[in-house]
Automatic annotation (TrEMBL):
This is Uncharacterized protein LOC116219044. The gene is LOC116219044.
Length: 1090
């Protein structure tokens, strides 16, 4: 049951005299009965206890360790795992000493295992961090011992703290002294982040890896390495980091358990890919890797296996498929031929049955004499029948073959191309698509030559189409990259021909390799010679990344685009452009990149197929948004864009259409809605009036029926003489009846109208405001919310003036509320941005008034534009003059981004916060703060930003409402965590925070509550659990003891019922005199049941 806080407050106010005793009893009950109170009422009860007890405690008592120990240990402990952010914030702001603070931390730590992760993070965010970062003489509660400092001040919550913020609070903190307390992510941060260690990065990495490798599984080495690679991807650490960690990890391969080898090798391969181009990492020479070894205990496998029935089949030369593998492995296999084994392998490898590697090894060891011939037979069967063996047993079988065959091959044979060709071509080919990481690593470490390595790559390439993407990436990570990056005289298997080098060494797996790592391995690699082999992402990397081309960036971009535009669909131009925009957003390439690619893409618009135009224009618009503020890009003047043209074949459309029945309706002046559009399009429409066509349009555009653009064009071409009047009628019907036409036919109809009307309008009329007003206002308005990208692009390229453009923007704005977000973004991307960024004398349609400029040129779509692109188009744009028009995200960008304000960052932040705090809920302060934190995490703004925003937010805490206080404090704490290590942020001294106060209206709570039945139970000393909390809160609780209250609390807090904070407050106020004892009883009950 759930009850309001108000109901609880009413009850507890009435029972205030016995509340303390009741709480003690509850604590005892909970303790003695090993209970965990986790119901929905725990949080509001603790909030009410905050009001009735915590907020009345004197400053002196908050410093008294005995009092605090009794309060949080005896009374409140059962409730702590459900503390609300407001209660935590309230306690954090009290007059605590380091000793009393640390005791409360220890009490919360006892409840850590009962908390959800979000709840644990709230304890950290709203209690621990605010207290430790307060401005006082003992700020941070520093001690000389890092282990004691971390345990005492953070308890079990220390694993949730970014390592950097521990240094921020304690400059002498030594993470190497607390390695056992760090989480996997913190351990990775210690190695990757530029933290202020007294030791050098090399020593830190070695000491951390010494610690992890002592007990790699228990100390979570795999998870640490995952975070190391992930952080390195995000943060791009310097060369010294890679030079320290990669050789050390490679050295460890000789000493770790076999199942850890592929994990460490994968991490090394991942880090090698991320290493800067000019950073030389010396790799130790490791001995050839041993394949994993599987111990076999035949007695254990065969203990309960009876193979007698199988023996009779085998004696008859039969190999039944429905008998388990264990029976075969445990049988006497006398006379078992290569053909028998081949039959068994094909059967079992194609099934979904799973068998252990140990069982397979027992079988294949027993049949070793015929195994090689059997494998050749399996390969032939699979090849001749075009089978793919993909069952779950393929991987363990290949692992076992590695043990029984591959690991016994001499070093000389690994260099013999004839032997390797037969081994991987004749015997192992059917299994290769399921090779495990450990097997791949094993083969990669053998004594291969470049020739034999490349042959094995070609065999894996033949299986590429049968692999999942993760499997293909494993071949790259555990076989190809380790071999090519080994330290030897022919490292990289270099050849002068880039095409031959890429195909020979990577095969079909080359598409997964970041382009940078190809340059790392082969300084003479020329990606322009292998454009047909590159994936869309690699092609984008070639244009965006600062790679060491002998050619300049301009020539590279032009040659790549020449290649793509020769055959744009087959060569995946749309996908390449997607990756170009994504990479540009991530990597912020220099001005030269934008100056080379944008004009070239704009020029291509005159020659590409119509359906590619909006894609290229969208990419251009996206790149223009990302262009640096001070980077001037010259855009070519393109001729007005043609609307798309739909060919119509009436014979084909009307081939099977009979419109006879419709003709009789039309002769009677009727336009039935339930007859298909195809019949209308194929009918003789003599005498078809504008009113008829308007009726038909309203009917079909509001339905869920879908018709082709070709069918609509046939109909509207036949009715062209009455089309304009019909459109005006439709607009009036829609307006007068407040309809919205949103069916699937609206978009193709508007495309057809573009062909039949818009593309025939003269250049002069596109400049005529009266004509444009009538066209978009009277005729097209109902359709505008569904305009296609190609239609929008077509209109944007017409001979518009700023005035006619702005009128069309206003018409689209009227439809904004009827658009999905993707549709609104289309209007921006394909109509507004291309027009405003064209190369002309009035480019940008600039005006001196920022408010007018934004409203006229962007309308309601302005909220979708990154703020930076508004500055790009209008150097004099003043966002402080249009704060009411900005979205929460744009408002956050204004404070966080390095935009070219005439004012300083400090003034901008203060003026924005002045605006928000005048009316924080209406002006979306919570959402703005959310975006401020997200952007700060992404963009790492300079110290000045944090020094401006954090103190101002802290100051606002004294004037905002309670709910906002929690949100602002959360924002401050997140920003403090993101502040650079060497950035000192002055924090204002704030008054101790008051707990939230819940007003209680007993009359309203008890208005419809009848407690008469309850009173008779109470008179008999009974506290029934199935009676609602409201009845207790509204009853006369004379003689209600601490034990009664403890019983009630245990009952209600363990249930799923929800009650309001107000109800709880009423109850606990009434029982206040026995509350403390009751809480202690509850704590004991809970403790004893744990």
């Amino acid at each position: 049951m759930t009850y309001s806080r108000e109901t609880w407050k009413l009850l507890l106010t009435k029972t205030s005299a016995v509340l303390d005793d009741a709480l003690i009893m509850v604590a005892h009950v909970v303790s003695n009965m090993s209970l965990t109170v986790m119901g929905p009422s725990v949080t509001p009860v603790l909030d009410v206890l905050g009001e009735l007890r915590l907020d009345l405690i004197s400053d002196m008592l908050w410093k008294d360790i005995s009092f605090i120990s009794a309060l949080f240990g005896d009374g409140l402990r059962p409730f702590l795992s459900s503390a609300s952010g407001s209660l935590l914030q309230c306690v954090s702001g009290k007059n605590l000493t380091c000793q009393t603070f640390q005791h409360i931390v220890s009490e919360f730590s006892h409840q850590f295992d009962h908390m959800r992760e979000e709840q644990a993070e709230e304890v950290l965010k709203f209690f621990i961090l605010p207290f430790l970062s307060r401005n006082s003489s003992d700020s941070g509660c520093i001690s000389n011992n890092s282990m004691a400092w971390l345990l005492n001040n953070y308890g079990r919550f220390s694993v949730l703290v970014p390592l950097k913020s521990l240094f921020d609070l304690n400059k002498d903190f030594d993470p190497l002294a607390v390695l056992d307390l760090l989480s996997s992510k913190q351990t990775a941060e210690l190695m990757v982040l530029p933290l202020p260690h007294p030791q050098g990065k090399d020593e830190v990495i070695n000491r951390v890896l010494d610690h992890l490798l002592e007990s790699p599984v228990e100390r979570n080495l795999p998870e640490v390495l995952y975070h190391v690679v992930f952080l390195s991807t995000q943060l791009e650490p310097p060369c010294e980091f890679y030079q320290a960690i990669i050789p050390r990890l490679r050295e460890s391969l000789t000493s770790v358990p076999g199942d850890l080898e592929p994990i460490i090798s994968g991490a090394v391969a991942g880090l090698l890919v991320l290493t800067p181009t000019d950073c030389e990492v010396l790799l130790p020479i490791t001995p050839p890797t041993q394949c994993p070894t599987t111990p076999v205990n035949e007695s254990r496998i065969c203990e309960d296996i009876n193979s007698n029935a199988l023996q009779s089949y085998l004696a008859a030369g039969l190999v039944p498929c429905n008998i388990s593998l264990e029976q075969y492995a445990c049988a006497q296999l006398t006379g078992f031929t290569a053909q028998h084994l081949a039959q068994l392998l094909v059967c079992k490898l194609s099934s979904n049955m799973t068998y252990s590697r140990e069982t397979w090894k027992l079988l294949l060891t027993k049949t070793s004499a015929v195994l090689d011939d059997a494998l050749i037979m399996v390969a032939h069967v699979v090849s001749n029948m075009s089978l793919t063996v993909m069952g779950p047993s393929v991987t363990p079988v290949l692992d076992v073959l590695g043990e029984l065959r591959l690991d016994l091959i001499s070093d000389m044979l690994w260099k013999d191309i004839s032997f390797i060709s037969a081994l991987f071509g004749d015997g192992l080919r059917p299994f290769l698509s399921s090779a495990s990481g450990s097997l791949l690593q094993c083969v990669s470490g053998k004594n291969l030559t470049c020739q034999t390595f490349q042959h094995i790559v070609s065999e894996f390439s033949h299986q590429f189409d049968h692999m999942r993407e993760e499997q293909a990436e494993e071949v790259l990570r555990f076989f190809i990259l380790p071999f090519l990056s080994r330290n030897s005289s022919d490292s990289g298997c270099i050849s002068n021909n880039s095409m031959a080098w890429l195909l020979g060494n990577y095969g079909r797996f080359s598409v997964f390799v970041p382009l940078k790592s190809l340059f790392d391995l082969n300084k003479d690699f020329d990606p322009l010679a292998v454009l047909d082999l590159l994936s869309p992402k690699q092609t984008a990397e070639l244009m965006v990344l600062p790679l060491p081309h002998p050619q300049g960036k301009d020539e590279v971009i032009n040659r790549v685009l020449d290649h793509l535009l020769e055959s744009p669909v087959e060569r995946n131009l749309p996908e390449v452009l997607y990756h170009v925009v994504v990479l540009s957003r991530q990597l912020e390439p220099p001005c030269e990149f934008y100056q080379a690619i944008i004009p070239r893409l704009r020029e291509s618009l005159t020659s590409v197929p119509g359906d590619l135009e909006p894609i290229i224009s969208g990419a251009v618009a996206g790149l223009l948004v990302l262009t640096p503020t001070d980077c001037e890009v010259l855009l070519p003047i393109t001729p007005p864009t043609q609307c798309p043209t739909t060919p119509v074949n009436e014979s084909r459309i009307c081939e099977d259409i009979n419109s006879n029945a419709l003709q009789s309706y039309l002769a009677a002046g009727l336009v039935p809605c339930n007859i298909s559009l195809n019949q209308y399009a194929c009918a003789q429409l003599t005498g078809f009036t504008a009113q008829h066509l308007a009726q038909l349009l309203v009917c079909n555009l509001s339905s869920n029926m879908t018709y082709s653009r070709e069918t609509w064009k046939l109909l509207l071409t036949k009715t062209s003489a009455v089309l304009d009047d019909a459109l005006i009628m439709v607009a009036h019907v829609v307006s007068n009846m407040s309809l919205t036409v949103m069916g699937p036919s609206v978009t193709p109809v508007l495309d057809v109208l573009g062909e039949l009307r818009l593309d025939l309008i003269s250049d002069m009329l596109w400049k005529d405001i009266s004509f444009i007003s009538a066209l978009f206002g009277d005729g097209l308005r109902p359709f505008l919310s569904s305009a296609s990208g190609s239609l929008l692009q077509c209109v944007s390229g017409k001979n518009l003036t700023c005035q006619t453009f702005q009128h069309i923007v206003s018409e689209f704005s009227h439809q904004f509320d009827h658009m999905r977000e993707e549709q609104a973004e289309k209007v921006l991307r394909f109509f507004i941005l291309p027009f405003l960024s064209r190369n002309s004398s009035d480019s940008g349609c600039i005006s001196n008034n920022s408010m007018a400029w934004l409203l006229n040129n962007y309308g309601r779509f302005s909220v979708l534009v990154p703020l930076k692109s508004l500055f790009d188009l209008n150097k004099d744009f003043d966002p402080l003059a249009v704060l009411d028009l900005l979205s929460p995200k744009q408002t956050a960008e204004l404070m966080v981004l390095p935009l070219p304000h005439p004012q300083g960052k400090d003034e901008v932040i203060n003026r924005v916060l002045d605006h928000l705090l005048e009316s924080p809920m209406e002006r979306n302060l919570p959402e703005v703060l959310y975006h401020v934190v997200v952007l700060s995490r992404q963009l790492e703004p300079p110290c000045e930003f944090y020094q401006a925003i954090i103190p101002r937010l802290r100051e606002s805490l004294t004037s905002v409402s309670g709910d906002l206080e929690i949100i602002i404090r959360g924002g401050v704490e997140r920003l403090l965590q993101l502040t650079p290590i060497d950035c000192l942020v002055p924090l204002p001294v704030t008054l101790p925070t008051q707990c939230l106060t819940t007003p209680v209206n007993e009359s309203r709570i008890c208005e419809d509550i009848n407690s008469n039945a309850l009173q008779s139970y109470l008179a008999a000393g009974l506290v029934p659990c199935n009676i609602s909390l409201e009845q207790y809160a509204c009853a006369q609780l004379t003689g209600f003891t601490a034990q009664h209250l403890a019983q009630l609390l245990v009952c209600k807090l363990s249930s799923n019922m929800t009650y309001s904070r107000e109800t709880w407050k009423l109850l606990l106020t009434k029982t206040s005199a026995v509350l403390d004892d009751a809480l202690i009883m509850v704590a004991h009950v809970v403790s004893n049941k744990v």
